[in-house]
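Reading group handout, session on sequence-to-structure problems. Before we discuss, look at one worked example. The prompt was deliberately terse, the way you'd type it at a terminal:

> structure Protein MMS22-like

The input record follows.
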Amino acid sequence: MDYDLFQSDEDEEILTAYIEASQKPQQTATVLHLSLEHDNNDDEVEIDVETALDVLPEFNCAGRDTVKSQLDFPSNSFARNGYTFNTIPPRSSLDNLRFDFESSQLQICLVLRYLHGEACKNVQKLCAAVAGQQQLQMKSSSHSWYAMRQQVTHFYHLLLHADQVEGTPAMCSLLQLRELINSCLDAATWRTLYFAEHSKGNDCTTPAYHLYHGALEWRLLDLCVQRKLQEQADVECTYQAQLSRLLDDLVLCSQLHYRSKQSVQLLHTSVFMCRCSKELWMLLQQQTDFWPRFHQALQRHKITQLQRRLNSKQFVSETLLLKLSFFLEDANLSYLEFYAWLRLSVARLAAFDVTADQLQIGSLLQQFLAGSPSELQRRVYLCLLAPLPLDAAVLCQLWESLHRSLNCQFNQADQLEQLPLTSASGAAYVQRYRQLLASATLEDLQLNSFTMFALMLGRTLQLPRNKNQAQKLLGRIFSKFSAAKLLALNEYGIHHVIELFLCLLLSHQGDFSELAGKLREMLLCLALDKLPAARRQLAAKGHMALLLLHAERRLPLHDYIGKLLAQLAATRNDLDVCAIYASCLHTIFEHSADFTHGEQLLLAPWLTHYLEQSAQAAQERVWQALHLLCQRLRQAVASAATLAMWQALQQHVLPQLRLQYVSGFSSWLPKLAAQFVLLDKEKKLLQSLLLDAEPANLTASAHLLLNVLELDQQPPAELVIQVWLKSLVLLQPQHAAVRQLTPHVLQLAELRALQLQASDLEAREPLCAFFGALGRQPTSVAHVRMQLSHKLHAYVAHFERWLPGDNPELMARFYNFMAIVIYNCAPLAYVRSKPSCFFHMAMTRFLLTTQLQAGVAPEARLPQLVHKIFPVLLQGIGRLPYRQDAYLTRTLEQLVLHWTPHFAYSSNAKLVARPYATLLQADVVGELSQFVLQQLALQFLSVQRSQAGPHVGLVLGLLQQLILALQELPASEAERQLLVLLKAVHIPLLEHVMFVGELEASRLQVLQLYRVLSGQTTFQRSTAAAALCCGDLRSLAEKHLAHCTYFYFQMLIKLAELAPQLITPLFGFVREQALNVELKRGAGEDCGIRKCLQRLQQVLQAN
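And the output record:
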């Protein structure tokens, strides 16, 4: 239709009418009376201008619509201004019409004809511009597309508020304009327009945008005008036809939008291209007969599309006809998918205030399932179906279709095959499906179609209105299961049955125990011993899920647990099944309040077997569950049920707990052990755990005691101090467990009696502070000393078990601990004739072992440890009566004899001599150091058959270091140490020179030692040292001159060469002793003695 046909030939008449209208009074003009129907009656009421709307509604696009967008349309929208198809919309003021006429002039028929012609021209211009007629576009380039569209829309508003009469020009104008628009908006045009949304709204300059939104406005206003004229003849038919045409066009636009999307995109894509079309759909669905019209429109669309596709194909053979059948089948599935997508979106506009029958869910689902859809198509369709209100018939259809495929994988074709074991335990199964049932939507394509069905079934049963349909659904489901069919299920089938049963139980509104009993017995048909490993584990998870639901509802568990354990025993306590059972213990115990439902049956031999065979990580979960159980048991009121639970714990858990406490490292073991201690009525378990065997976990004892103390139970003070001391030895004082335990220890009366404060423990090593304070207690009274000794031995009881395996740092702390005790508390640590006293145990087990005394070399690191504590040990023994007590004397001798050779682990002579240097310096009296050095010299400087011992070089080097160290000391201290040293070793040194072979290296070493000694300033200035040396030489003369004359004179001659000032005063005494020897021999003058005296005299004269 050419728009030039609508050019007016009556311009002069219009101009004349315009002039006349401006000159005549308004009341004399021919007007169109405006009227408005009330919603409640058919009376026409004159409306005052003041009540008219201030705006003319129109579509102003805000861009593409989304699924999450709300129904908050703009203020100038049709929905916000009362427009609806059920009633006549409110009147708008004619002053808002943007025509080049006054309001009064718009009532003139000629003006109306002119506006009608302009509207037709604008429609054609917009259509031509969209169609791509370049010549027309160039001609109209200066025009505003929005103004053209608005002129047409305003013309419809003018017609909507005019009093129409059949046969009048207005009626003809409406009919002609409608026919023009219908002729322009064919299917090809909609393919160009359906995506013409734009975020700029009406500021957009694209003609397609304005034609698309103008068409929506014109169709809407046209229907409103016809609704106003519904009492006139033939209007109702025209109205129904236009309404169907509008629905067809909207469905076509949605279908074109659907074709641009993939199936997986539908769930997150709005079916409406923009909110303008969404608003029009919302106005349409408010009609009372909307859904029948909606389904009719979809049917017409299906027929139209099939006809179009058939017309585009040329079939020349049966092969092509076969292809056509596949093509039509696929097209039908796509059509049904589009149908479901559009239906869901429109139903969402109505807030799902519809029924399944109105939506024709059942019939359409039947068609969809009959088309053998793929898994992806089925998932998408069910996601589009899930939000809708479903009834029992729909779910029964799905069940009839899916139950035959229980053993199928329900995977998409492009996915790798994998087991649907998405839940690791029974508790995980329950949590997963509880969350899915509670989720707001089910639009998740990761869920397979059977899972979607189970969730839809559960959510339907949760609704109160579907309570009566539950029995029908359950009956249909149960009828498909038998024992044979259950045993024929594979891994996929068992998984699907589990999720189905869980969804039924979690959503059931009736008698839970009845339904749970039926499902339980059905699942028990899957005998574990008759299933392969994978199916057995799946069945076990299903059982645990059902058992958890039983526990949540406080149902009796005796029968169910008994049957489950019987099946587990039939599998010989399969470890994987035991792990599944154990994983649910924690959750079951969480729901146990009084233990009257048979929970104690879960503590059976299978649990002991699992704890013995499982890894530490798996044990952790069991210990945690048992810890919770013990907490609940302590809080529960004493009854026969709680007693039975405690007996089960003692029988099946406590023995394994003892073993694991000693060998394990779980942090839950001390916590659980503390709970057992509190439950133990005999109060013997704590001492047994702490004293029987030392745990491999060094912090276990401290944590156990801390947990007991924090639970307001006070163990014996000796036990607390013992654990604290052991923790100080095995752990650092800064360790968290030690720091937490120390405040509890300081509150004890024993610590207060020792007057120990927290500051004392922080200022120095806590072990030194404690044993120092204990050792300072008065011990002069025998019975007081005995009491303190008993306390000390209680504090360090079984200390020999404290030392762990190969750990150098802990060994060093342990040996330091022994030295600290012996040094500070020697009178308390040593009990004469008591092999179990601390002193004897330390010596025989660690310091003077049988292997060491037998000559077996100690471990490589032990000499260094003993070297460090050696002077401390010697000083501690020095506080005991070591001269009167033969055991102590021998202990000192053995320590010196067996450990000194091993101090040669270092080539540093000064380091080797450090223990003796420290002892020499610390022993102010000098008695102990003299005794020790004397034992050192006697043990290592003795000569056998003129041969020196193997370690004489080490000892001589050690003595030389002691002599050299004197020059670094003050004169008085140096002289004191020199005298002690000479008293201890001088005579053994001289005898070594006398009796050792002349060619032995040690003889030269001793002489070199004497040269170093004589060169010392302290020795040269000390008259006491000189007198001591002279006295020793006199003693040796009286002792050895008669029998070893030659050796004695040889020694004197060598000393005379080194220190003549020392020998010169002794020459007269030696000569006199030599002459006495001659007389005693009675042989007259002895030439040998005379020659020796002569040689000695010559050496003295020469020096």
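Points for discussion. First: The two ends are 153 Å apart (CA to CA). Second: Strands lie at 36-37, 44-45, 943-944, 947-948.
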